[in-house]
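Crotonase/enoyl-CoA hydratase family protein: structure tokens wanted.
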Amino acid sequence: MATPAESPADARAAAAGRENRWKAFTVDRTGAPGVAVVRLAGPGRGNMMGLDFWDELPRLIGGLDADASVRAVVLTGTGKHFSVGLDVQEVLGPWLGRLGAESGPTAAARGELLRLIGRLQDGITAVAACRKPVIAAVSGWCIGGGVDLISAADVRLASAGAQFSIREARLAIVADVGSLQRLRGIIAEGHLRELALTGKDIGAERAERIGLVNAVLPDPEALLAAALGMAAEMAANSPLAVAGTKAVLNDDREERIARGLRHVALWNSAFLHSADLVEAVTALGEHRPAEFQGR
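Answer:
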């Protein structure tokens, strides 16, 4: 017996079910024609970037990139915040467990860390390499890995309450997933060095003033509306011309960024093990300021 034809409503429901199989993301295509809204969805507070996030990000973005019905992507958070960054305990927990050894990590363990950093870098690079325009819409906190992620987007928008921080230096870590490399093409060198070397937090107003975001909207609702409107404008253009424009804009920039990513991955795999990092992790657990000795 012939199978009944699937109704448009059934097709949309089936597609939604396939897209929302993700653990760390949700995908919604109802906001504007040709636009996929990707929301960071945890787990944990503030859309922390755990193992599921890093496993799913390149596959999710790769799928949208290959889908001809998607012409632009809006990347945003679920709840009050965009992302509070890397889930250090979940992602680096096995490595952190070795820090107490006086002799430090073995060459094999350093190689393991090098591969882990490369895996995280590849996830963010998948966003930068996407042929479809990606617009980051940021509300609340955007810390560490969150800044890495939005630096790979084509355009960044923020709500008035957004806060940004390249916080790794405060944790005795060299930021190694892309913000130091990609922000050089987005904000001026002096601002980048100030933010990366102090680890300070900045609000949306200053982020707009230095060019980190293109515009600041009054609240999260206005932010999403603006992001969807811009994405719809991009989606209405020739997809071939849009992809070609991105390829030309990315050409020499991505080659420079790739060199920088290799450099920082090698640096951290060699030097991440330190007394300062042990102190940073301990201080974080004890809810106190760290006291670094440069060892």
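Residues 78 and 295 are 39 Å apart (CA to CA). The chain has one domain: 11-223+233-286.

Cheers.
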